[in-house]
Amino acid sequence: MGNIIFSKDFITVANAEITAQSTATGFSKANVMDYWHLKRRWRMDSADKSSINPILYFDMGAAKTVAAIMLDDVNFSKVLILGNDTDLSTDWTTAAFTSGELTVSCDAQTGRYSVYIPLTDFNRRWIAICVPSAASAVGDYQTKWEVGRVVLMDSVNTFTKNMAYGYERGAKRAYQDFSCASGHIERVELGELRWEGTLNFGNRTVSQESDLTTLNNLNIASPILFYENNGDTSKCYLCLRDTDYLGTVKAGNMVTGTSIRLCELI
Question: In this model, does residue 75 exceed pLDDT 90?
């Protein structure tokens, strides 16, 4: 298991700079940059596959060193990321960067298909998402391609010392109970499953504590990307941090940290 990764250094792209192969009515391409409402999503108007004609591509305005990309809540099992210095429109055969075909897995906690993709030496203006011919439709809706969110990360932080054992994670769905005069109870579900995690931090040196203070100093009202980095690329979540970090000095160069709770934005 690698050390956990987080980021708040996002590259946002305006609607006018997003190109979609096609768009179904009511599912704007700009929705992929809406970090706060996952299920607003973008939907293509078909389920065509191609390794050279992207379903979506983004003009970032200038060459950017994209460290990683997260695709959140998609309904295809394979993906290909391409990059180039110029707009290649519908034929990216000559793209300067390719990730190769990658598998998109289902997260057991949420039941959604997501993927964290590190990009090595990416420094291009345009970045594209293709659904190759090897892909299959997955998830509850399989008629046309969908993407919930696209998170482009300019940089990421990898912890120098990983979290301690006792890491808790799972998913919850809000609900409301209605009590009847007869004594019966009726229950209504409210919204989607939301991932939650509590990261525990044991003993570490004062220098290693900088991982935690860096995370804690980020704006608590802004989204952060959390990736478990344990070999399962679906374990990536766009979250809010709900708790603050406190460290207890146990010895001259040793501290014990409190837990940090994260809740997914849906």
Answer: yes
